[in-house]
Amino acid sequence: MERRLQKIFFALSMIALALILAAEWQANTPSWKNYQRNFLQLEAQDEPNAAAKAAVLSTPLEIHQVMLTGLQRVDRCTTCHLGVDDPTMKNAPEPFRYHAGLGPHIPSKFGCTICHGGQGLATDKESAHGNVAFWQTPLLSVDYVRATCGRCHKEGDVPGVPELTEGRHLFETQGCRGCHKLNGVGGSIGPDLSEEGASLRAPQWLEKHFLAPNAVSAGSAMPNFHFSTEQARNLTYYMLALTNQDMGSYYSSVRLIPSPEYGRQLFIEKNCIACHSVGGVGAKTGPDLLGVTKRHSNEWLDEQLVNPQLVYPGSTMPEYDLEANARKALLAFMATVTTEDVQSILSGRKTALKPEDVAIEAGKQDFARFGCVGCHGTELQGGVPNPNAQGGEVPSLLHVSDDYTKDEVIAIIRNGKVPPMDNPAGPTPPLYMPSWKHVLSDEDVNRVADYLWSKQQKKESW
Ligand code: HEC
Ligand code: HEC
Ligand code: HEC
Ligand code: HEC
Ligand code: HEC
Ligand code: HEC
After folding, report:
1. 104/113 Cα distance (integer angstroms)
2. What distance in Å separates the CA atoms of residue 443 and residue 150, rounded to the nearest whole number?
3. Which of 124-133, 134-143, 345-354 is least confident?
4. Nearest CA to ligand 4 atom 37
5. Which residue CA neighbors atom 12 of ligand 3 most closely?
6. What average pLDDT does the segment 292-311 reach?
7. pLDDT-derived band of residue 382, with 50, 70 and 90 as boundaries?
8. CA distance 299 to 253
9. What domains lie within the chain, and their CATH numbers?
10. Ligand 3 atom nearest to CA at 161
11. Of the residues 206, 335, 357, 460, which has the fewest C-beta atoms closer than 10 A?
C-alpha cells in the first residue's frame, strides 16, 4: 500500500516537473501571438483616448503574409516584425523596430528573405530565422546582409556597398577565371562559381578559405593569394551575390543603379574630358559641361548621348553604346560635377599610351581577365605549388623566350600542356596548362604573346 502511494506521488511529481518545464519553455519561446499582443500594448501605451486605446488592444491577432510571385516566395516575417514600416517605432525593441534605410525596397514588395535569408513561411522564431535542421539558408549575419544587394544590382556600383565593387575587381584581376568558370567563361580546375552564393557555404567559411584555402580545404590546389582580411571580405561579398537566381522582371529592372558615383566612373572610363571642359578646366573640342543639365532637358541630353549625329548633324562626338541607366548615371554626374572634381580627375589620369604599347596593354589585360595570373602570377613570376610536377610549381613566364619561339608559345597557349611528372609512380599534378583555343581568339592569343615578349628577362651572360 505504502509502495503504491509512493509510486503515485512519484508520478505526480514527475507530471508537475514536466508542467513547470513546459511553462518555462513557453515563456522562453513565445508564439507570434505573444509578440502581437506586446506590439499592441506598445502602440496603445501613448494613446490618450481610452476608447481608441481599447480599439488598438482589441485588434485581431493574425498572421501577416506577403506573396512575392516575382521572387517565388511567401514571407511571414512581419507577423512578428511589426514596426518595420512605422517610423515612430525607430527606438522600439526587436522585433518591433522600424527598418531604416529600405528606400524603395518596401516590405510589401520585397518581403525580407530576399535580403536576409531565413524561412519565409515559418511563424516561430527559430524556424523563421532558419536555425533548424534541414533549412539551408539561415539568417545571414548582419555583417554580410549588404552582399545580397548584388543579387539584383549586378552592374556598376551599389551605393553604400563598396565591398561588391572591390570584390568584382579582385575577381577579374587576380586570375580566378584561370581555374573557375563564372557564367560560362573560365577553367575547370576548381568548381564553377556561377551559383556560389546559392551554395551552402557559410560566409565565414568563404572568408577563411580566401585567407588560406588549405586551412579549410585540406590539400587544395587553390593558391594562397595572401589576401588581407579586407580583401577576403570583399571577395566573400562578391561570392554571396552570385546566385543566378531568376528574379522577376520588376526586380531585375535596376541591374545598374544610376548613381552619380557610377556616372563619374563612366566619365573617366569613356574619357569625356579629352574633348570637354568643366568650368574652363579640360579640353575645348566640345562645349563646356558645367551647368549643362540646366541648359538642356534630360530627354534632350539622353538623346545626345545615344545619337549625337541626330542632335547635331555632323557631330564629332562618338556614339557610345550605353544602356539607359548608364546614361542616367552620366547625367546625374553632370548635374553635380564641379571644377575641382574635374581637376582631380585630370591629375589622376595616366599618360596616354604610345601606339606600339596599345596591343601590349591589351595583352596584359587579357592575361589578367582570362585568369593566367591565377597560376602564373601578376608579375609572371610563377610559383603556385603543383605537387609532383617537375619543379614542383607552375613555371615562371619571364624566360619563355629562352626555350621557345613565339609561335611555339602561341601553340602552347592554344593547345594547353600537361606538366611532366617528377615521380612517374606518384599522383597526377593538380594543375596543368589548360587549352585556350575555344576561349581566346587568335587576336587575343597574339596580344598575350606580345605582352609575354615585352616582359622577357634575358639570362645574364658572362
Ligand atoms: C515568431 C516571431 C518572429 C518571426 C516570425 C521572425 N522573427 Fe526575426 N526576430 C524576432 C525576435 C524576437 C528578434 C529579436 C532578437 C532575438 O530574440 O533573437 C528577431 C530578430 C531578427 C533579426 C535581427 C538579427 C538577429 O539575429 O538578432 C533579423 C535580421 C530578423 N529577425 C529577421 C527575420 C526574418 C527575415 C524573418 C522572416 C523569415 C523573421 N525575422 C521572422 C522574432 C521573429
Ligand atoms: C533590400 C534589402 C533588405 C530588405 C528587403 C530587408 N532588409 Fe533588413 N536589413 C538590411 C540591411 C542591409 C541591414 C543592415 C544594416 C546595417 O548594416 O546596419 C538590415 C538590418 C535589419 C535588422 C537589424 C539587424 C541588426 O542586428 O541590427 C533587422 C531586425 C531587419 N533588417 C529585419 C528585416 C525584416 C523583418 C525585413 C522584412 C520586413 C527586412 N529586414 C527587409 C536589408 C534588408
Ligand atoms: C530583389 C532585388 C533587389 C535587391 C536584393 C536590392 N534591390 Fe535595390 N532596387 C531594386 C529595384 C527593383 C529597384 C527599383 C525600385 C523602384 O523604384 O520601384 C531598386 C532601387 C534601388 C536604388 C534606387 C535606384 C534609383 O532609381 O535611384 C538603390 C540606391 C538601391 N536599390 C540600392 C540597394 C541596396 C543598397 C540593396 C541592398 C541593401 C538593394 N538595393 C537590394 C531591386 C533590388
Ligand atoms: C590554380 C587554380 C585556382 C585559382 C587560380 C583559384 N582557385 Fe578557387 N579553387 C580552386 C580549387 C582546386 C578549389 C577546390 C578546392 C578548395 O575548396 O579549395 C577552389 C575552391 C574555391 C572556392 C570554394 C568553392 C566551394 O564552394 O567549394 C571558391 C569560392 C573559390 N575557389 C574562389 C576563387 C577565387 C575568388 C579566386 C581568385 C581570387 C580563385 N578561387 C582562384 C582552384 C583555384
Ligand atoms: C590552371 C593553371 C594555369 C592557368 C590558368 C594557365 N596556365 Fe600556363 N601553365 C600552367 C602549367 C602547370 C604550365 C607548365 C606546363 C609544363 O610544365 O609543361 C604552364 C605553362 C605555360 C607556358 C609554357 C611555359 C613553359 O615554360 O613551359 C606558357 C607560355 C603559358 N603557360 C601561358 C599561359 C597563358 C597565356 C595563360 C592564360 C591564357 C595560362 N598560361 C594559364 C598552368 C596554367
Ligand atoms: C571626340 C570628342 C568628344 C568626346 C570624346 C565626347 N564628346 Fe560630347 N561633344 C563633343 C562635341 C564636339 C560636342 C558639340 C556638339 C556636337 O558637335 O555634337 C559635344 C556635345 C556634348 C553635349 C551637349 C553639350 C551642349 O551644351 O550642347 C554633351 C552633354 C556631351 N557632349 C557629353 C559628353 C559625354 C558625357 C561624353 C563622354 C561619355 C562626351 N560628351 C564625349 C565632342 C565629344
Report:
1. 16
2. 33
3. 345-354
4. 176
5. 251
6. 93
7. very high
8. 20
9. 32-128 (no CATH), 142-241 (1.10.760.10), 260-347 (1.10.760.10), 355-454 (1.10.760.10)
10. 35
11. 460
CA distance 85 to 425: 67
> What pLDDT score was predicted for residue 298?
95
Mean pLDDT throughout 33-55?
A: 93
The single-letter DSSP state of residue 417 is: B
Q: 191 CA distance to ligand 4 centroid (A)? A: 7
Strand partners, 67: 74
Instruction: Spell out the long-range contacts of 26-31 with Cβ–Cβ below 8 A and sequence spacing 24 or more.
Output: 29/124, 29/125, 29/126, 31/123, 31/124
Q: Which atom of ligand 4 is nearest to the CA of 199?
A: 26
Which of 363, 375, 364, 441 lies closest to 178, judged by CA? 375
What does R_g of the chain's alpha carbons equal in angstroms? 30
What integer pLDDT is reported at residue 311 of this predicted model? 83
Distance 373 CA to ligand 5 centre (A): 10
* Ligand index nearest the alpha carbon of residue 66: 2
> Which residue is associated with the grid cell 507577423?
79
